[in-house]
Amino acid sequence: ELIRTLAEDVLAKEVLTLHCPLDYEKHAVKPKEGLGALDILALEIKQEVLERLDVQSLLTFRRVNQEAMDVVNGMVTWKKVLDNAPDTIRMAIGAKVAHRFTLCQLLDKICQKHCDTCGHLAPYINVYTVTRLCRDLALCPG
Fold first, then answer.
1. Which of 58, 88, 91, 60 is nearest to 75 (CA)?
2. Treating both helix axes as pointing N-terminal to C-terminal, what angle do 76-84 and 66-73 enclose, rounded to 10 degrees?
3. Domain residue extents for the chain
4. Which of 73, 76, 85, 97 has the fewest Cβ atoms nearer than 10 Å?
5. What is the spatial distance between Cα 43 and Cα 98, in angstroms, rounded to a whole number?
6. 105-134 confidence digits (pLDDT tens)
7. In sequence order, which residues have a C-beta less than 8 Å from that of residue 102 and are 6 or more positions away?
8. pLDDT digits (tens, 9 = 90+) for 8-34
9. pLDDT for residue 141 is more than 80
10. CA 106/CA 100 separation, integer angstroms
C-alpha cells in the first residue's frame, strides 16, 4: 500500500506506545467528581467545546477524572483519529507539538491522501505543520 505512516517506516510501534501513551486510566477517580461548570451543558455541547481545544489540552482534560475521559472517549472525532492514526498523536506528543493543532485539523489531514504541495499521493503527515507530505520530498515540485 502506498499510503503509510512515518511510524511504520521509522519508529517502532512499541517504543512509540511506551513513551507516548494515550490512555491514562491509572489515575485515582472518585465517582462523585463532576466537571464543574461544564456539568450544566449537554454532552453534545461539551464535545463541541472540546473539539475546539488543541490536542495537548484535550489530552490534559481527559486526565481530570473518569467523566472527563468518558466525554472525550465518546467524541466521534477522537474515535476516528484513534482508529485510523493513533501514532500520529503519539508522535505529536513525543515531539512536543500537540498544542499546535486541534483534533479536527488532524482528522482532516488523516482523511486527505494527497500532498499539500504537489498533489501526489502523500503517505506522511508532518506533525509540526499538520501537512501531508510526499514520500520523496526531493521530487516534490513545491
1. 58
2. 70
3. 112-141
4. 76
5. 24
6. 999 999 999 999 888 888 888 889 999 988
7. 51, 52, 53, 54, 55
8. 555 666 666 666 666 655 554 555 578
9. no
10. 10
